[in-house]
Write a structure and sequence with these properties.
This protein has helices spanning about 10-15, 30-40, 55-65, 90-95, 115-135, 145-155, 185-195, 230-245, 280-290, 310-325, 330-340, 380-390, 390-395, 400-405, 410-430, 435-445, and strands spanning about 1-5, 50, 70-75, 140-145, 175-180, 205-210, 215-220, 225-230, 250-255, 260-265, 270, 300-305, 350, 360-365, 365-370, 375. It is of the alpha+beta class and about 450 residues long.
């Protein structure tokens, strides 16, 4: 199958350098002429079907270019990137106030701008959709918008966290084409069907781009969640989940090392921050989960495959990595805490390793946990990291209540909590900037 990408014709807002986003702006006279010229240029190409954004400028372009020669299917996934509060304002303001809107690694939803990672997820969902709906077809026309077509381009040719999103561009009514062979998503779906004896035809695929990973993650209806990534990484998750088959963690349905994927059960839960779970209930469930951890004999402490020889060295490594993100925060307190916490050689347990509310889903009042980053160490570290992953929980419940859990030396508990707080604060500097100051205040006061 060959797909042809076309950007819509010019609008008055294009001409004036105004940010359009999902604002519904029609073609101007120049845009209509551009579309007509493109129609004449490609009149000898027979398209089996045309997919178009329903926004007016793209829909009008599609109608002119197709000229009733094939069906037009309007697809919401092809809508332009949302630029939030910047729509209707000069593009110079956008790039001045949000200069990093094309950087996958640090892009956020500043000002209501749709993050690059979400745009890429939409592009991948669209490509998966047409691969399935247009199987057996020869040529497919796609009419859309500048940023959305960038995302489709990179979804086709590949990308990583260092990709410059602005390095590729289509002008108004410009066209380019790609060969779209069967993708790895389709191969994975076929393998899942064979392994689980299920039929996934017609199931809706939804792609996710959470965090800063270039892995491919998508749901298949409300049945499965699939992660495609280097199996050196997935294998560690598999080892963790096989250790806890009957637990609050994801259930593995099937996997294939050659195709680099794991298929999990789909957890139909709410994100922790959107749920109504009470802080005390959350803490009690967190305690219950870490108390279910199993002892695990391992040569050292820390993340599987990256272990350190001692508990002290693992905690020090965590601190040094965190320091790179929060150099402005004094290390005096955390290094003093390390001196106490690092004296211990705790019993080894297999930990989740990224045990925080960002990986919690609440299903019928129960916390379910996804995306392990397996490590070996003291289960208290996971407990404190989870408690501190939502600064509001700690603020609502207080230090004394938190320390009432687990019969351990109080000085060790306080020291380990300070280390976990320092590490969690460094994560907030990247992923939770709105709450970074609250973490700094807590660190200063504890």
């Amino acid at each position: 199958m060959r797909i042809y990408l076309v950007r819509h014709g010019q609008t008055d807002w294009n001409l004036r350098g105004i940010v359009q986003g999902q604002t519904n702006i029609p073609l101007n006279e120049t845009g209509i002429l551009q579309a007509q010229k493109l129609r004449d240029k490609i009149q000898n190409i027979h398209f089996d079907v045309c997919y178009a954004s329903p926004l007016r400028r793209a829909a009008e372009t599609a109608a002119i270019v197709v000229n009733r020669c094939c069906e037009i299917r309007y697809e919401d996934l092809l809508k332009e990137r949302s630029f939030g509060e910047f729509e209707g304002r000069p593009g110079k303001e956008l790039f001045k106030q949000a200069p990093n809107i094309g950087d996958f690694r640090i892009n956020t939803d500043y000002g209501g701008i749709e993050p690059v990672k979400d745009l890429l997820a939409r592009a991948e969902s669209f490509l998966a959709k047409i691969r399935r709906e247009c199987a057996g077809m020869d040529k497919v026309l796609v009419v859309g918008h500048g940023s959305m077509l960038k995302a489709i381009h990179f979804a086709v040719i590949g990308w990583d966290e260092d990709t410059d999103f602005w390095s590729w561009h289509l002008d108004n009514s410009e066209i380019c084409d790609y060969e779209l062979s069967e993708g790895r998503v389709e191969r994975v779906l076929t393998d899942i069907e064979h392994q689980l004896y299920v039929n996934l035809k017609g199931e809706t695929l939804k792609f996710y781009r959470d965090g800063a990973t270039a892995s491919t993650v998508f749901s298949v209806g409300n049945r499965y969640l699939v992660k495609i990534e280097n199996f050196a990484t997935l294998g560690k998750q598999l080892e963790f989940l096989h250790e806890y088959p009957e637990s609050r963690f994801q259930k593995v349905m099937c996997f294939n090392e050659e195709l680099n994927y794991i298929c999990f059960e789909f957890i139909d839960g709410q994100k922790f921050g959107e749920s109504e779970i009470e802080p005390r209930d959350a803490i009690e469930q967190i305690c219950e989960i870490v108390c279910s951890y199993e002892m695990y004999k391992y040569d050292g402490y820390g993340f599987l495959g990256e272990q350190k020889t001692s508990w002290h060295d693992f905690l020090l490594d965590e601190i040094e990595y965190a320091e790179q993100r929060i150099p402005e925060v004094s290390k005096d307190k955390v290094m003093a805490a390390l001196e106490r916490a690092g004296q211990e050689e705790p019993e080894q347990y297999l930990l989740h390793g990224d045990f925080g509310t960002h990986n919690f889903l609440v299903e019928n009042g129960l916390i379910r946990v996804i995306d392990p980053m397996p490590a070996v160490g003291d289960y208290l570290y996971d407990f404190y990291f989870a408690v501190l992953s939502n600064v509001k929980i700690f603020g609502d419940l207080g230090e004394d209540y938190i320390f009432s859990f687990f019969e351990r030396d109080i000085d060790y508990k306080k020291a380990l909590l300070i280390v976990a707080l320092y590490v969690r604060m460094s994560r907030a500097a990247v992923y939770d900037k709105d709450n970074l100051q609250a973490y700094k205040d807590l660190y200063a006061s504890i």
